[in-house]
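Thread: quick sanity check before group meeting

JM: Hey all, I'm pulling together slides for Thursday and realized we never actually wrote out the predicted structure for the chain we discussed last week. Dropping the sequence here so it's in one place. If anyone has concerns about the input, flag it before I start.
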Amino acid sequence: MSFNSDLKAELCSSSFVCPNCIYAECLGLMLYAAKFSLDGLKLQSDSHTVRKRVMNIARQVFGIPLHHEGNVLSLSGEFEMRYAYEAFGYEYRRSPLQLNRALVEEDCCKAAFLRGVLIAGGYASSPEKGYHLEIVTSHYHIARQTATLLSEMGLSAGYVQRRGNHILYFKDSSLIEDVLTTAGAQTSAMEIMVKKVERDLNNNINRKVNCDTANLDKTVAAAAAQTAAIKKLEEAGKLSTLPAPLRETAALRLNNPDLSLSALCKLHSEEISRPGLNGRMRRLIKLAEEL
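JM (edit): ok, ran it. Output follows.
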């Protein structure tokens, strides 16, 4: 099962808060079905759970059963479509198809409408692959009116047109969580939240590891350069002519080629700071370069 399939199955398990919620959800299902026009209705789904939910809702709202063939549910003909249109307050062949705001006045009905929209026309990518939620309809005005309703609910969506369809989409993980929670898919919203925390944690660990590795590489490279410079001075017979503090530092570095400057500071006979020790090392390197 994919994340999108699990999401729709969870949405289908939601109950109705008030009697009008079933009409609101059915409206969302129909407006975002594969086809909803004067001559027919077609809603397609590979999920038995989704088809069962749609058939039960349509039977209660329309008073007539949907035709069921394979994974397609449908209505056709003037008699059946008149029932479908009039159930949502449309006057058959006279009213333009639009979002009937009278059916989504209450917050619970808005949530039910959103649930129907997601079940029929929604797609959510797996949170392991990224954050993307979109809802698709072939009706431009329906998409714009839905966008307005979502904005009023604090769920502002982006809009794009693709292959003749009108798509509202969300890419912000927190906003997707809010959309799913509002529609009744709290478990799916929680899964996105958990994956986001896991991803952030892994990213932080990787950043720390990369940073530590880079710092270690710098330390090793610096120690190697310091050791090479000291050996060069030693081979040239210059090391014994240096002041005692420089000779001590040089000897400690030769005997401890892998230690960091901070660790090397602690081995000196007299207290020395890391910047002070770094200054000595730069002086040794400069003297070697002058040879």
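AS: nice. The longest strand covers residues 165-170. Residues 213-290 form one domain.
JM: adding both to the slides.
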